User: Fold these one by one.
Assistant:
Number 1:
Amino acid sequence: MIAGFWWDNWMANVPGIEKMLRRVAESNLRTRYVAFGIQERFHESIKHIVHDFGWKCLPTRERHKVTHDRIGMSDLDSDTLEVLIDGHQADIDLYRYAERLFDTRVRETRLDVDIGLPMK
């Protein structure tokens, strides 16, 4: 599913489909989600999600599917990295949009609540 639409291979040939889906996905982030987080800012995201949902305590969490020997982007050769970026540019662009929107919400909230998590 992409931006709330079931994807089918024929859609790849529709002119402007990626731009339209990105606009829908960005709109969904702005208007349909009470809260969302950014993986690289996990603790800060949890802090804001707790606030946005009005929770009084931090939900319990367990780490699942932890990969200890995962390679990082810096471990990839330039050709592999280029193929990955080219194939996922729409996802990368949406993630960057989400980061900017998250930053805006953080600034607007000015949240200073200690929920017991270290802020990294």
Number 2:
Amino acid sequence: MNFEAIPDLLADIIAEQRRTTEAVVGLAQAQTAKVEKTTKAAVDTSVDTPATAAEVDYEAAKKAVLALIKSQGREAAVAVLASYNLKSLQDAKPEQWGPIVQSIAKAAQ
């Protein structure tokens, strides 16, 4: 075995690791940018703030809650509902749906 080649082999391995790390970081950054763009678009199109609270029905409120979960996670939706002393949207009264949707729109910004 030629021990003189070991430093060159190690240098090659380290260089390959650096290239791989740089490639992975680049892919992660690109994916992060893509997810942020997609999330912003989903929130912008899915969380429509109605002109009046009277225009909000259960399905519109449900759609807003699901969009918030998709963009910011379940914890964000739970926090909005908890601010109305609710454990789930099903517990909300019809007059609460509009304000809940408005709170979700604010949380999504």
Number 3:
Amino acid sequence: MRTRSVIGGGIVVWFLTAMSGCAFDGDDEQADSQAPDEGSASADLDDPAPPPPATPTCDWVASFAGAWVPFNRASNTVNCNMVRGDNSPGVGQLQQSMNLCYQEHLARDNDFGGNTEAALRRTQTRAGTTSDGQYGPNTRKAMLHERIGGGCIRVP
């Protein structure tokens, strides 16, 4: 038997397949007893795999790699997302970084509204990343952030 992986809908499923041409000693009962149970194999494939963990929403600000960046407190990570409708100090820091590093003129109101989304799209274009109006790990790595002590810096 060998393992195979099948990718479908972004989900990787591992299952066992019987190798053709397996050598048995000629006893058909032994061959039948070694075959995988077809009922359990299909049941395993029908069970949905758990979805990957969602990227948390940025709800705070942290110092990271010499800059102030949006942060998620519960997960203790800078790998977080912000989208239109979010309201947090993380959004305020994004607004500050875009004002300082990309000459935007946003109110630092912690509200990810239409003006912040439009400014982020312009920032993403200038930073050379996908201009989707959503802040996440790819945008964090591509754009400049407010450097601790002044100026702008790109972070990993």
